[in-house]
Amino acid sequence: MGFIADSLNRIQPSATIAMATKARELRAQGRDIISLSAGEPDFETPQNIKDAAKRALDEGKTRYTDVDGIPELKAAIVAKFSRENGLTYRPSQVSVGTGGKQVLYNALLATLNPGDEVVIPAPCWVSYADIVLLGGGKPVFVATTIDDGFKLRPEALERAITPNTKWFLFNAPSNPTGAAYTRAELKALTDVLMKNSHVWVLTDDMYEHLLYDGLEFFTPAQVEPGLYERTLTMNGLSKAYCMTGWRLGYAAGPEALIKAMCKLQSQSTSNPSSITQWAAVEALNGPQDFIPRNNAKFVERRDLVVSMLNQAKGLKCPMPQGAFYVYPSCAGALGKTSAKGAMIKTDEDFVIALLDEEGVACVHGAAFAGSPAFRISYATSNELLKEACMRIQRFCGNLK
Ligand code: PMP
Ligand code: GLU
Fold first, then answer.
1. Ramachandran area for residue 98 (φ above 0: left; ψ -120 to 50: alpha; else beta)
2. What is the CATH number of domain 6-44+290-397?
3. In this structure, which CATH number among 3.40.30.10, 3.40.640.10, 3.40.50.1100, 1.10.10.10 belongs to the domain 63-285?
4. Ligand 1 mean position, distance from CA 385 (Å)
5. How far away, in angstroms, is 396 Cα from ligand 1 center?
6. Residue 99: CB within 6 Å of ligand 2?
7. Predicted pLDDT of residue 126
8. Phi-psi region of 30 (alpha: psi -120 to 50; beta: other; left: phi over 0)
C-alpha cells in the first residue's frame, strides 16, 4: 500500500509479540493453549514496589516529569551502576525511557545514518535488526553456533567489523539463547573492540540478574574501562523485577549521546509514566532478596525443560546459563510430516504445526536470525511446562 512509509516496509512486526497475541486469541476462542512465547516472568511485581506506586498516586505524583527521568530515579540508577557494576556515572549521563525497547530505539535512531552498520551476534532478540533498519542502518549478523554455546568468538567479531561499523550490539545473558559469558570470554571480545576505536558498544544488560550456576555478571565497560567513553550500558526493570507491564528501561553513557536520546524522546513519548518512575526508585533502592528466590525457581524449570526436550525425537537442547529461555535445535525434525499432515520444511512450519496440533506456542528461530531452532520461555509453572514438554515430545514422536 503506497500510503505507508517506505521505512515501515523495511521492518516486520515483532514475532514474539505476534506469537503471544496469537496464543491469546486462540485461548479466547476456547482452545487449550500453553503459551511459552512471550519473554515475561510469571511472578508478581514485589509488594514493596507496588506500594511505592500507590504512594506516588496518593501523593499526587501524576504530572509530567523531566523527559528522561526524575532526579530521584537517576540517582537510584547511578547508585545501581556503582554498586553492581563498578561503573561511575553522573545523573546527566543517565537516560530513562518507556521500557528498554524505547531506550534502544532512542540510541539507534539518534545515531544511525544511511549505510551505518550494526554488528549483532545471532541468534539475537527479534527487535534489534528491525530498529536498525527503521533507522536506515544495516544489521550485520555474526553467527554463533550451538557447539560454542551460542557465544561469539573474538575472531568472528573481528571479521564482522568494517570501516562502516557504528555499533556492536551485545546482549548477555542472551535472548533467545540464554548464553552468558565469563569475565575472560567478555575480555576477549572487548580486546577486539579496543583495536577498533571507531566502534561504539551498545550493551543490553536486561538479563543481568538472571544468571545461574554461580556465574558472575560483567558488562563491557566494567571489564574494559578503555571502552567507557564509547559504551552505552542499557538495562531495565521488566525481567528481574517482574515489571514488564510497567514499561521502564534506562541506560548510561557519554553525555552527548544521552542528550541526543533525550531530544528524540522529547518529540515522541516525553517522560515515562510518573507512577512507574517512583515504583522504579523503590525497585532499585529497595530489598533485592526476591531475585535469588525467583532464580532458584527458574533453575528448577530450566533443568526440567532441558531434560524433557532432549528426550523429544529430533530435538537437541543445550543447557543455558542465563535468562529464562531455552533454544533447542529442531534440525532433526525438518523434512518430516506431522500427524495432521503438515510438511515441516522450516522452523516456522515447526512452531505453526506445534501450535495447531498440540496447542503449544513457541517462537521460531528465523525470527531471531538463528535457524533451524525455536525459543521456549520457561517463565511459567512447572505443571504447565511439564504438560507443554509432553505435548512437544508427542508432536516430535509423531513426525514421519
Ligand atoms: N532487550 C532484550 C534482550 C529483551 O528480551 C527485551 C524484552 N523482552 C528488551 C530488551 C526490552 O524490554 P522492555 O522494553 O520490556 O524493557
Ligand atoms: N522481549 C520479550 C520477548 O522477547 C517481550 C516481547 C518483545 O518485546 O519482544 O518475548
1. beta
2. 3.90.1150.10
3. 3.40.640.10
4. 22
5. 30
6. no
7. 94
8. left
DSSP string, 37-97: -S----SPPPHHHHHHHHHHHHTT--S---TT--HHHHHHHHHHHHHHH-----GGGEEEE
> What is the average pLDDT across 203-217?
98
- Assess contact for 256 and 270: CB atoms under 8 A: no
Tell me what pLDDT residue 1 has: 61
**pTM higher than the cut 0.85:** yes
Alpha-carbon span 60 to 74, nearest angstrom: 20
Ligand 2 centroid to residue 124 C-alpha, Å: 11
Average pLDDT, the chain: 97
pLDDT more than 70, % of the chain:
100
In whole angstroms, give the CA distance from residue 141 to residue 118.
Answer: 8
Ligand 1 atom index nearest CA of 102: 14
16 Cα–ligand 2 center, Å: 5
Question: Minimum-distance ligand to the CA of 376?
Answer: 2
- Return the ligand 1 atom nearest residue 125 CA: 3
Q: Which atom of ligand 1 is nearest to the CA of 323?
A: 5
Residue 349: all three cell numbers together: 512450519
Q: List residues bridging with 336 in a β-sheet.
A: 344
178 in ligand 1 pocket by Cβ < 6 Å?
Answer: no
Quote the longest CA-to-CA distance of the chain.
63
Residue owning grid cell 564509547:
230
Q: What is the 3-state secondary structure (H, E, C) of 113-134?
A: CCCCEEEEEECCCCHHHHHHHH
Q: Domain ranges in the chain?
A: 6-44+290-397, 63-285
